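User: Can you fold this complex?
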Amino acid sequence: MSSAAVQYARQNHTRFLDELKALLRIPSISTLPENKDDCRKAAETLRNELTRIGMENARLIESEGHPLVYADWLHAAGKPTVLIYGHYDVQPSDPLDEWLAPPFEPVERDGNLYARGAADDKGQVVAQIKALESLMAANGKLPINVRVLFEGEEEVGGETIANYVASKPADLKADFALVSDTELFAPGLPTLCVGLRGMIYTELEVRGAKTDLHSGMYGGAAPNPFVSLCQIIARLKDENEHILIPGFYDDVVPPSPEELAAWRSLPFDEEEYRKKEVGSRQLVGEPGLSVLERTWARPTLDVHGMPGGFTGAGAKTVIPAKAMAKVSMRLVPNMTPARAFELYQSYVQKIAPAGVDVEVRLIHAGDACIVAVNNRYIQAATHALHEVWGKDTVFIRSGGSIPIVGDFDRHLGLPSVMMGFGLPDDNIHAPNEKFNLKNFELGIESVIRFLEEVGS
Amino acid sequence: MSSAAVQYARQNHTRFLDELKALLRIPSISTLPENKDDCRKAAETLRNELTRIGMENARLIESEGHPLVYADWLHAAGKPTVLIYGHYDVQPSDPLDEWLAPPFEPVERDGNLYARGAADDKGQVVAQIKALESLMAANGKLPINVRVLFEGEEEVGGETIANYVASKPADLKADFALVSDTELFAPGLPTLCVGLRGMIYTELEVRGAKTDLHSGMYGGAAPNPFVSLCQIIARLKDENEHILIPGFYDDVVPPSPEELAAWRSLPFDEEEYRKKEVGSRQLVGEPGLSVLERTWARPTLDVHGMPGGFTGAGAKTVIPAKAMAKVSMRLVPNMTPARAFELYQSYVQKIAPAGVDVEVRLIHAGDACIVAVNNRYIQAATHALHEVWGKDTVFIRSGGSIPIVGDFDRHLGLPSVMMGFGLPDDNIHAPNEKFNLKNFELGIESVIRFLEEVGS
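Assistant: Here's the predicted assembly.
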């Protein structure tokens, strides 16, 4: 079954891995202003790499944020055009002290490559590029027309790519998109993701006194913004994880009975998941719904941190003048970020305790989406995956959000093939992020065979 | 009326102020490990200064924490002995960006001296020392026997001095204590503090998953420790500031009708206090009780900060593995810290949401206390204060905690005269802490006249 391109990929695996490591050494954390130059460096590295392997028109598309990377190769007359998407930015690496090795010094251990961004998403971006390189090196050409568009703001809302896609530029004209930012449902199980949650990421800021006050002198008279914030958050969802914002569930479309049945047949053990992946005393969530239903098809609300006040070691007896909470909500079809934010904001203002001012800010947002599974690209993908992995593809959703998938559909009319090679235990967004080395290898081969299949 | 010592103080005021500034330049923040050497430096400065002015046996008393400073002068045969107490440590200076000038570069502005520790408590400690220096310089001796004991852990629970006092050492044998760590009720109004709240300062730590998780992938299944913590805190007190811990109020002794009547006659306008001191939209607190009652004679609960999770700029979609809250409670007679902590801890464990582990840690604690007003030292103090300030003394309580006052009573049998010269708007524990320059001057004179009065 192995094509010349697959052979090439196998022969060059060590070099491919070294090149991935080089990219992982660049701390391209998009949310931190101090890493702005690193983001540019990662973008330039990718642009240079795309040029080196034979892609054309490789360039950075500049913005106020981090640049997009574009390249194309459009010489497969009569063949479809793919728009290949990935992101070169990564999440912050804190808490640093929980990493077994420094986050930007990639190390191999137990068949995995550990580094921030290994699975999310540099490993997958490099797999795409190495597939293109292998095809080009083995055949002197690509089997279909290819456009590549990488972004550097996926972890911070993707404003630059969203604006660029919304402007419908000629150089994004394509027939479908290949998005590699998802994971296999289980090791060795080829997987296509066909549904994503949307999200709104917000900040709640509560202000009480005009300045920090001594909690001895003023305790009992001055409002405590942290207590007020806790009272607000405690009223956002109940202990069954049911969100208490009035009207929040109005637009929720439940999964079809067929989809639910397919999910039930997936190899998934909730107790195993609790023990191995989550590691908590017990799982939480809405009663009567499976974990997959709760994480894929139900809106959720999380608090990510509560900055402000005294956070050092020991004691400081202060009533802080203000407190903040980072709060996000995951959305499902057919909820919209605008409506969700409006409901949330007006509810928070309604329940705000006396004595404090509350501000609700939207940091970023993205739509939920569902992909139809009956198009030729999804079919070609399942064929390619069966060849490489020797198994039938499972169709899953993801609880995460890839807003660009909705944008590709809405603005460019492109169906997305979400073919990713991460694993559920890759610790993305957490300490000790990893990418399975075998998945990196088979990921490259999967993309090669997928493009060949579409072009055949 | 002015004694030779008072004359000396007035003549040397500029130098006294310079010496206070020098002490304020030492960032002796007791809670921060990186300022440990600064705390020692402040202690050594005070020891050297005590030796310089003619005190004897000046020395540091070492501990695992920050050293105590001791000195004495015991040549007033037949006269009482005072134990003079103050502290050289200060609160952290964050949030730094709200200071108009750097916290450890004292500046004079509008009749005030601005610096961290200016009022709490270095300005008052220096006032005590300068009173001793003036008495010694003017008369070649002191009017009564004097022991001085300064500590460097007042802001972090005072463990060293508590242990030292509890050991009842011979060199603390005295008749009464002079504690200068309080404030005037209003500018120009001589004030003795005769009641203090106690406290327990705690950390609540909530742990959910074994590691940080992606809120898209795991939102809806993994427990969110910040949400759990908010749910716990929201159940610690209601929106009327009533603490919901069962049994918490059982031991509360209300102030006497006479005390309440005296408080009502104090020059205090709650609306003015709200606007000028607190600056919040409205005050909070238990309905039907005055602000003074709420802050002096009722237990309260505050949250100082909630460390953990993501607190940077922008967005990180993480479900943190753990979250923490710094929570303290102020106690009133006859509550005990041990009992309050026990009730709090068992209540928190009882209401802890499913899926998370909760740990409750006691960081430090102090007893509430009430001082009898009919002893000869309080009487002498009111005479001295009348001379210096030209007004009758008011007796107030403080919402703050000075645990050592209870220790002096319990272990050494010493009544405390809490004669302090701060002002309610001194911003202690907050940005732009200040000490009124006139109060520094009259504070020195008040201590001089008080010691002369006791010795006469």
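Chain B touches chain A through 102 residues (CB under 8 Å). The mean pLDDT of chain B is 95.
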